[in-house]
Design a protein that fits this description.
- It comes from Neonectria ditissima.
- Pathway: Pyrimidine metabolism; UMP biosynthesis via de novo pathway; (S)-dihydroorotate from bicarbonate: step 3/3.
- Its EC number is 3.5.2.3.
- One of its GO terms (biological process) is 'de novo' pyrimidine nucleobase biosynthetic process.
- By secondary structure, the protein is an alpha/beta fold.
- The protein has a single domain (11-315), classed as Alpha-Beta Barrel (TIM Barrel).
- 34% of the residues lie in helices and 16% in strands.
- It has eleven helices and 14 strands.
- The strands form four sheets. The protein has a six-stranded parallel beta sheet with strand order 5-6-7-8-9-10, sandwiched between helices.
- α5 links the parallel β7 and β8 (171-173).
- The radius of gyration is 19 Å and the shape is globular.
Length: 353
């Protein structure tokens, strides 16, 4: 099997966590290492980004770290978000609103209890062209038989309901992790798409259960789910595109007590996807001829940019090739240390051209 080399347009990562403060200073500098020049930045800071002023201030802080990146700003769906805020956000260039069901993941305590409470907000978003980004899980509830393994599947009726109620509202089901999610996105119209992470193309539930650095929300699932994700990548045609959900945590938060949910992939956003596709070819889950230049251009960049209406006028390009590079050891900043996914493992070599 001989994949590549590939020369591609600069990638766009439509789901990243850059945090703030010293952590942001450490991880934001790794974005370009993964072949990415455009990022859709999650708003689940402490406190969450719920106003236009907060969003613009946060963007300014990130630009001060690396001004070569196009940071796309997002608001956190919250009771203080009103139709007036949506219209203000549109004027300010904010692209979307992220929904977190209360309590399902990192910094989601201020999240949504009932989506019906936001009908006027969703109507305004539909009119203004803002995107609704859904963390597609329901909170675990043993009495209702809900665990982290079926939390995504249990959420999918909500996706269907929102799409039926607001058919022109652009919706992204974030970090799809199940065959059910892939099928649900495919069953919806053109205004509904899904993002797929690089790590979910590698991981199974056994990995998450045995290695804290493979634990994320949503958790990795079963072999048939991973296969569905891989096949969704190569068969995307615009329905699925890259959103790594790269989520840095200091190693102390991963190793001590109740481990924090998040896998850090930012420095190898595109490279890990290619490695996952290679492994899938070896297992016979996809075909080598499926991994084409056109597919990678779409999944890494064109599909997401088209959906969001975000042009890349930079003309920047990247080259990915097989070499002797391995994934680096920990990223160390001032008072923070983050372990990348698959540290020490072989990876593709990336250069900007």
């Amino acid at each position: 099997m001989t994949l590549g080399p590939f020369e591609l347009s600069a990638a766009a990562d439509f789901h990243v966590h850059l945090r703030d403060g010293k952590m942001a200073e450490a991880v934001t500098k790794t974005i370009r290492q993964g072949g990415v020049n455009t990022v859709y930045v999650m708003p689940n800071l402490v406190p969450p980004v719920t106003t236009v002023a907060q969003a613009l201030d946060y963007k300014s802080r990130l630009q001060a770290i690396d001004s070569t990146i196009n940071y796309l700003s997002v608001l956190y769906l919250h009771p203080t978000i009103t139709p007036e805020v949506i219209r203000e956000a549109k004027r300010a260039g904010i692209v979307g609103v992220k929904s977190y069901p209360a309590g399902v993941t990192t910094n989601s305590a201020a999240g949504v209890i009932s989506y019906d409470d936001y009908d006027d907000v969703f109507s305004a978003m539909e009119s203004e062209g803002l995107v609704l980004n859904l963390h597609g899980e329901v909170p675990s509830d043993p009495k209702q038989g809900v665990t982290i393994l079926n939390a995504e599947s249990r959420f999918l009726p909500t996706l269907k309901h929102l799409h039926q109620k607001f058919p022109k509202l652009k919706i992204v089901l974030e970090h799809c992790s199940t065959k059910d999610a892939v099928d649900a996105v495919n069953a919806c119209g053109d205004t509904v798409v899904g993002t797929i992470t690089s790590h979910h193309l590698f991981l199974l539930i056994d990995d998450a259960a045995s290695d804290v650095f493979c634990y994320c929300k949503p958790v990795a699932k079963l072999p048939e789910d991973r296969t569905a994700l891989l096949q969704a990548v190569v068969g995307s045609k615009g329905k699925f595109f890259l959103g790594t959900d790269s989520a840095p945590h200091d190693i102390s938060a991963k190793k001590q007590g109740k481990t924090a949910a998040g896998v850090f992939t930012q420095p190898y956003a595109t490279q890990i996807v290619l490695s996952a596709l290679e492994e899938a070819i070896k297992r016979g889950e996809i075909k080598e001829e499926d991994v084409t230049q056109e597919l990678l251009e779409g999944f890494f960049s064109a599909f997401g940019r088209k959906f969001y209406g975000v042009e890349d006028k930079s003309g920047e390009r990247i080259r990915l090739a097989k070499g002797s590079e391995v994934i680096c050891s920990n990223i160390i900043g001032e008072g923070v240390e983050v372990q990348p996914f698959r540290t020490g493992q072989p990876t593709w070599t990336l250069e900007w051209i």
